């Protein structure tokens, strides 16, 4: 799937030249795509065999699953694929996979069980864990405190390979170090990936194929999305109580993240700085013109004051044909397929042509891969982790695509390429993970497209006060002080 996707895009972009725009928060234009046309050889060294070693993985976080447990998985097909993946790793490397898990629903900026377990292990200077899959906020705090290993220094681990998320590596780097990241080996990320669903019963084949083509050519912008939706909407029966789009308040944050906006980035010194500048405002204006138009987009979470059932209401309304498009996550896909709804899966639009969307992930439930600071054998951890990621792509990609593929008019091959794009490119924002300035909540609460500047200014002082102690910790980390 990924190889076909890369060949298709390489052909397209070889015929196009895009220029980037300045500014620290400007949406970055795609200037190069990874060359993965050749079949990737196994990264598992021939001499890597660990004689029955118990490789222990800490699995923690909010609402996630333990993908390293043989019995994990949401469907029989995925369970079987995970079983094959884990057994293949054990057989190839001579290890026994052991997991310790602790899950719970967390709010952003609230330390969880993953943080507690790794801090305890660090100060005990113990080798309790070889690898960890923990909540994103926990991983961010541990990274800034210098309590994790730099993944880029682990022998046998190559974060440039296609089974690792290049967007995550870019977003989560601290100077030249990557202390936590995402990739194929975390299936939980797929479920939480933001996406747009099109109700194919209202769209012609030409319109559906046009949307697919615009996505794969980097031309799926908010303007194009709105133009298509309004054209289809104009043909509907005024008495049908139909909406052009249905979404949640979190859709705005996901849209900004997918279009490259970050609340905070690191500067040349590797320190955090706010990045909600004029470029971010332009992106917001493009998104808000669609999502904050009540005549176009229905948000049941706001309009009905629903507390616990708004997600179900959103997806139920879409399945009943009450909206042309639904801005949701891939978690909604299996249920809609079971109901017999004809729909296609798309990424979020972008603010300008030439950029491929980076899918947002809910920071409350996102899980990240990291390695404890103290490792009994750094090379073993690197080799086994790389094997997990590689074998996931080999064993799990097909049932994963089957689970989240749409059930609409579009060609299955094209839908697979859309899913590949969604799976392989997740955007992450340290500013959202740390809750700088409460901007994540403020963005979700915006109802007026003109409210951006006031929101940014209102959170600036608080954000700066939050950034200062974290930057002080980072400065110590860069000096080798822990």
Compute the separation of the termini in Å.
Answer: 43 Å
What is the top-level CATH class of the largest domain?
Alpha Beta
Overall pLDDT level:
83
Oligomerization: single chain
Detailed description of the structure:
The chain is an alpha/beta fold and 482 residues long. It has two domains: 46-190 and 362-404, Periplasmic binding protein-like II (D-Maltodextrin-Binding Protein, domain 2); 194-360 and 426-467, D-Maltodextrin-Binding Protein, domain 2. The chain contains 19 helices and 16 strands. It has helices at residues 2-14, 76-93, 113-123, 136-144, 166-171, 188-191, 205-216, 222-234, 250-258, 278-291, 300-303, 310-319, 333-338, 378-395, 397-404, 412-424, 430-434, 439-445, 452-478; strands spanning 53-61, 95-103, 131-135, 173-174, 177-178, 180-181, 194-199, 243-246, 264-266, 272-274, 297-298, 323-329, 343-346, 359-360, 367-370, 426-427. It has a five-stranded mixed β-sheet, sandwiched between helices. The protein has a five-stranded mixed β-sheet with strand order 11-8-12-7-13, with helices on both faces. A two-stranded antiparallel sheet has the order 4-5. A hairpin with a 2-residue loop joins strand 4 and strand 5. Helix 2 runs antiparallel to helix 14 and helix 9 packs across helix 10 (278-291). The radius of gyration is 22 Å and the shape is globular. Residues 1-39 have low confidence and may be disordered.
């Amino acid at each position: 799937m990924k190889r076909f996707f890369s060949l298709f895009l390489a052909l397209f972009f070889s015929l196009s030249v895009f220029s980037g725009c300045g500014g620290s928060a400007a949406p970055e234009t795609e200037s190069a795509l990874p060359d993965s046309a050749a079949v990737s050889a196994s990264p598992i060294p021939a001499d890597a065999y660990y004689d029955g070693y118990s490789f222990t993985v800490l699995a923690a976080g909010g609402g996630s699953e333990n993908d390293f447990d043989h019995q994990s998985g949401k469907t029989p097909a995925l369970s079987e694929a995970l079983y094959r993946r884990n057994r293949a790793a054990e057989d190839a490397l001579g290890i026994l996979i052991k997991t310790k898990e602790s899950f719970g629903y967390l709010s952003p900026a609230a330390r969880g069980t993953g943080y507690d377990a790794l801090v305890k292990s660090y100060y005990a200077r113990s080798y309790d864990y070889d690898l960890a899959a923990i909540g994103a906020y926990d991983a961010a705090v541990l990274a800034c405190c210098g309590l994790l290993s730099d993944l880029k220094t682990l022998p046998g681990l190559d974060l440039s390979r296609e089974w690792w998320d290049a967007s995550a590596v870019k977003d989560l780097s601290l100077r030249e170090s990557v202390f936590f990241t995402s990739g194929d080996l975390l299936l939980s990320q797929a479920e939480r990936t933001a996406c747009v669903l099109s109700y194919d019963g209202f769209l012609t084949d030409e319109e559906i194929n046009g949307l697919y083509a615009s996505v794969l050519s980097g031309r799926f912008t908010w303007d194009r999305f709105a133009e298509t939706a309004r054209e289809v909407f104009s043909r509907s029966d005024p008495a049908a109580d139909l909406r052009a789009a249905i979404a949640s308040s979190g859709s705005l944050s996901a849209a900004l993240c997918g279009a490259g906006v970050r609340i905070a980035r690191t500067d040349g010194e590797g320190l955090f700085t706010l990045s909600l500048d004029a470029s971010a405002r332009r992106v917001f204006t493009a998104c808000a013109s669609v999502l904050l138009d009540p005549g176009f987009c229905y948000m049941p979470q706001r309009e009905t004051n629903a507390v616990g059932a708004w997600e179900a209401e959103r997806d139920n309304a879409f399945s009943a044909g009450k909206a042309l498009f639904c801005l949701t996550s891939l978690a909604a896909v299996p249920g809609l397929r079971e109901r017999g709804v004809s729909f296609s899966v798309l990424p979020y639009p972008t603010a300008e042509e030439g950029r491929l969307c980076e899918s947002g992930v809910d920071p409350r439930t996102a899980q990240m891969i990291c390695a404890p600071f103290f490792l009994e054998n750094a090379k073993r951890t690197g080799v086994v982790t790389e094997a997990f990621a590689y074998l996931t792509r080999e064993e799990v990609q097909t049932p994963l695509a089957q689970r989240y593929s749409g059930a609409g008019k579009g060609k299955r091959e094209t839908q697979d390429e859309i899913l590949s794009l969604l799976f392989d490119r997740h955007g992450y924002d340290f500013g959202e993970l740390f809750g700088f300035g409460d901007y994540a909540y403020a963005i979700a609460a915006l109802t007026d497209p003109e409210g951006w500047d006031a929101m940014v200014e209102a959170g600036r002082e608080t954000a700066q006060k939050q950034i200062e102690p974290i930057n002080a910790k980072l400065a110590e980390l860069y000096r080798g002080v822990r």
